[in-house]
Amino acid sequence: MALIVQKFGGSSVADRDRLFNVARIVADTHNAGNDVIVVVSAQGDTTDDLLAKAGEITCDASGREMDMLLAAGEQISCSLLCMALSELGCRAISLLGWQAGFITDRNHQRARIRKVDTERLECEIGKNQVVVVAGFQGINRADDLTTLGRGGSDTSAVAIAAAMKADLCQIYTDVEGVYTADPRVVGKAKKLAEISFDEMLELATLGAQVLNNRSVELAKKYAVRLEVLSSLNPVPGTIVKEVAAMEGMMIKGVAKDENVSAISVLSVHDVPGIAFKVFSLLAQRKINVDLILQSVGRDGTKDLSFTVPSTDRKAAVELLTEQLSRFGGTGVQYDDGVAKVSVVGAGMQSHSNVASTMFEALYENNINIRMISTSEIKISVLIDAKDANKAVNAIHEAFVG
Amino acid sequence: MALIVQKFGGSSVADRDRLFNVARIVADTHNAGNDVIVVVSAQGDTTDDLLAKAGEITCDASGREMDMLLAAGEQISCSLLCMALSELGCRAISLLGWQAGFITDRNHQRARIRKVDTERLECEIGKNQVVVVAGFQGINRADDLTTLGRGGSDTSAVAIAAAMKADLCQIYTDVEGVYTADPRVVGKAKKLAEISFDEMLELATLGAQVLNNRSVELAKKYAVRLEVLSSLNPVPGTIVKEVAAMEGMMIKGVAKDENVSAISVLSVHDVPGIAFKVFSLLAQRKINVDLILQSVGRDGTKDLSFTVPSTDRKAAVELLTEQLSRFGGTGVQYDDGVAKVSVVGAGMQSHSNVASTMFEALYENNINIRMISTSEIKISVLIDAKDANKAVNAIHEAFVG
Prior knowledge:
Strand order of the largest sheet of chain A: 3-6-2-1-9-11-12-10
Shape of chain A: globular
Protein name (chains A, B): Aspartokinase
Mean pLDDT of chain A: 91
Number of domains of chain A: 2
Pfam family, one (chains A, B): ACT
Distance between the termini of chain A: 40 Å
Low-confidence stretches of chain A: none
Domain ACT (chains A, B): 263-346
Largest interface: A-B, 38 and 38 residues
Keywords (chains A, B): Amino-acid biosynthesis, ATP-binding, Diaminopimelate biosynthesis, Kinase, Lysine biosynthesis, Nucleotide-binding, Repeat, Transferase
Number of strands of chain A: 18
CATH architecture of the largest domain in chain A: 3-Layer(aba) Sandwich
Helix content of chain A: 25-40%
Structural class of chain A: alpha/beta
EC number (chains A, B): 2.7.2.4
Oligomer: homodimer
CATH class of the largest domain in chain A: Alpha Beta
CATH superfamily of the largest domain in chain A: Acetylglutamate kinase-like
């Protein structure tokens, strides 16, 4: 008998039929002799509906009241799923975030889990019943409701799996697992049987939106065995674990991220500390800088180029324009029409031909590379957004086939 | 400076405009220098929507999961009202039932309040802000959510007013107060400036659905000064208190209740204990018996007639038919086409002409009386349902004018 945590997202519990579909998966797992803790998100459009209600009233709601409002979403879905489970003859009890012991810090809307107090979870699971936990939410030391921010339910599931030392944490989605590329873009994309935490982290960061990054980091930290699989198609998914089998394939995936903008600060002083000043300024405003390119100095000046998430572009350009004189720069340029394409795979640093294979594939397809960044397990290039899908296909063809 | 509890029902907070209307009332009260605790119900159709969701899944949901589901309704409305208050520049904080200290017994869907732990309420109200409490809900000793059943938000408001020793508990509704009769039935119905708890209780029981009975009982027990008033029309409402001023009018109201059925058990043995047996049988099934008429015994038998709520008629008739032999009865008859009409007013027992005035009014309008019941502060008659509105008008004319 194993303890399995199963997480279902909003579309998986969107309506009556979907709820019964989920209830059947859960009941089957329980009937097979496992202890099961289920984590659910709010139903389909519930969160959007609640946000719309708040938006009618104010565009400046306090984080505390937004959390109070939004937490109602999972409260509804977790009780409904328990009703569906009971209807299938499977005993079940719902627990809100605070009832399940989720203690967080005081940050509303993006709270961090401090700990999961498992006393009640252990008590309820000991009664031979399924426990359905409202994901995404917790409580702070002041007894106020908090929410965990984007991808919060994935994080809830992994946190429970870690705290309860579960044998497996299954993240059910609407895809069958982690693919070598987005199947909507690359027809030949292959499902991976296994992937390592680090590879998954790079893929998640790079825009493969299967698993939230925070949940992968947490899983890695507590060595929680993850499985990404489909709630609609009952086939094995992708296992995420510390070290993945090599599968004769070094490259685990090709990802693209179109939500990036390129910014250049032109002709700044070519003296020590300039890059530090520019990027610390952005860091103070919580703007994450990704790819960075610095031109070779000439005539005592150089250009500094980098990418930021598209949503931060406006703020970054305004800030830099305002402070431009501090760096002696002559102007700030930006370009929203770019995309980042990356190959990810552990072990690529010991294979010198990965980069050249990637660049060759792009060259053969007449795609211009604007910036390049490499890490131990990935190579990213910035290209024109219009070339993104062509680039993903070309790179996938070169590495995976 | 006074502490005022204000309760707003579901229709008062149904949408954006209604929420801002409520927020303005609350902010005005607060700005006038009062401490304000607000109790809200779920928005307009939220509860019905949630019940429909559950109904799609099962017709036999556990009380615990229904409470979990329904409690989301007030969670939504209380956070939205806080946002509206903030938008008006009035600081506010929302508290769920359990955060506001509502400890209940273990009965789901109709929990009784055991106590209100006012520690947090006192702390938050001390911060010069409005506290908005989710009505209708609490928590039991097992840390599970409970709901208080019908009219629960009224009860929540009165319980807070009692526990916090509030100076006034205002129940906002869509009528301007308590009337001498239903204004939709009697054009000349007058709003009462004051009414006593006992009179209000009789009126509530008799179908004047302004205030829930449980909340009036609670207010009487803890001497909470109540005011019933309109959230749409800012005029003084009706004060409910221990002893109401006489106002030169002995009769406080004329009420009708059409949700009654008459049942007769024919020719039961005319021996001691028969009435006890019949009514204890009904009491075991939680069927409330109201007006009772026992015919004069003849030939060793008598007929026993009484009224029950229409919703209990089927169960009562089935039960009595099944057990008929125990009383020696020859049959069970029922009639759903009846209505109860009552006059209510403290002091009427010392005025012998109340009954005769009432009967005369009915006689002059050719309305037949089928059963009569009197108490210290009311006289009720059972008549044909088709005559109910005519009877209410005739009696109102005779007493109030």
